[in-house]
Amino acid sequence: MLLKRTVIYPKDIQRITGKSERTGRRILEKIRERKGKEKHQLITVAEFADYTGIDAETVQEYLTD
Known about the structure:
The protein is mostly helical. It has 4 helices and no strands.
């Protein structure tokens, strides 16, 4: 059984969108605000997929460990 990463980081968002890493951090901040999460809490692939409208399976394809 392959374990897949659950959380997403700014570098992942950069790879998926082609935008800068700083933009990736901004997107994560917006998701945290919308979900009512605190600064130290992580964002999941599912939350990112829901926010952006990108299929979660497609997002998983871009994740590298």
